[in-house]
Design brief:
Blueprint (H helix, E strand, L loop, with lengths): L4 E4 L10 H9 L2 E4 L3 E5 L2 H4 L11 E4 L2 H13 L9 E4 L2 H6 L10 E3 L9 H6 L5 E7 L3 H9 L4 E12 L12 E4 L2 H10 L9 E5 L1 H9 L6 E3 L6 H13 L3
Parallel strand pairs: 1-2, 1-9, 4-5, 4-7, 5-6, 7-8, 9-10, 10-11
Antiparallel strand pairs: 3-8
């Protein structure tokens, strides 16, 4: 099988120098960036059912930019004016800088691990044990976050402020790909939902993350490349699959 069409289940990169575009040019393939999942804001009425009041907290933990958007949206709709004394703990510098869309960044207290890794964020929070933390989550990552922060000696509450749902395919949308790239179990779940009779055949699958791999295996799907195990990035795994398959006679 010669690889021609590739589906990457993430939004199209804004950086024109992205390795994905280099792969397209180098190997003459077409990459379609088509997210399998999308984010839906939680309405305030549903958020209130969690019996959480933003004003009861002195610090907020953000693991993604979308969490920042939804935190300030909910605060606004609940008519809570976020105080200047609020502290912010972010997964990395990119997420922390995104706060500048809502606050005067230099005048606030913002913290993030130098590694930019989620696993190192609880240790940063632990140094501020006197704070009362609000951990902003989606409905799909709440358990993953809880496992990390439960081990830290901090006072936190997990709050769902947005939902991750399947980005359904339309009836006229073609699905003629030679390779599929998955980044999360939610993406795999969307594939199964949209195509319950999906037959993999020769279609290659590249997966990132243990939970993504687990769900693929549970659905008896073959994993041709695994990011994090043999490959350091999704693009490296995709390129290797193209090279080894396209050179076959």
């Amino acid at each position: 099988m010669k690889v021609k069409n590739i589906l990457v289940s993430q939004p199209r990169p804004s950086d024109l120098k992205s390795p994905y575009f280099e792969i397209e040019k180098k190997y003459g393939v077409h990459i379609n960036f088509r997210p399998f999942i999308k984010v839906e804001p939680m309405i305030v009425k549903d958020f209130r059912k969690q019996h959480i009041d933003p004003k009861d907290f002195t610090a907020v933990i953000f693991t993604a930019k979308v969490g920042i958007d939804n935190y300030f949206r909910i605060c606004k709709e609940m008519r809570f004016e976020v105080p200047e004394t609020m502290k912010y703990f972010c997964v990395n510098d990119k997420v922390s800088f995104y706060l500048s869309n809502y606050i005067q960044y230099r005048k606030r207290k913002v913290f993030y691990p130098a590694t930019g890794q989620l696993v190192d964020l609880p240790a940063i929070c632990e140094k501020h044990a006197d704070e009362k933390f609000l951990l902003v989550s989606s409905d799909v990552n709440i358990e993953k976050n809880a496992k990390l922060f439960d081990a830290a000696n901090i006072n936190y509450t997990n709050a769902i402020m947005y939902r991750t749902v399947s980005n359904d395919f339309t009836a006229d949308e073609k699905f003629d790909y030679d390779l599929l790239a998955f980044f999360s179990p939610a993406g795999v779940a969307s594939l199964i939902k949209n195509f319950p009779d999906f037959q993999q055949g020769e279609i290659g699958i590249v997966a990132a993350g243990q939970t993504t791999v687990k769900l693929l295996e549970e659905n008896h799907l073959r994993i041709d490349r695994e990011v994090g195990k043999t490959y350091t990035s999704m693009t490296a795994a995709i390129e290797d699959f193209i090279v080894k398959n396209n050179k076959k006679k």
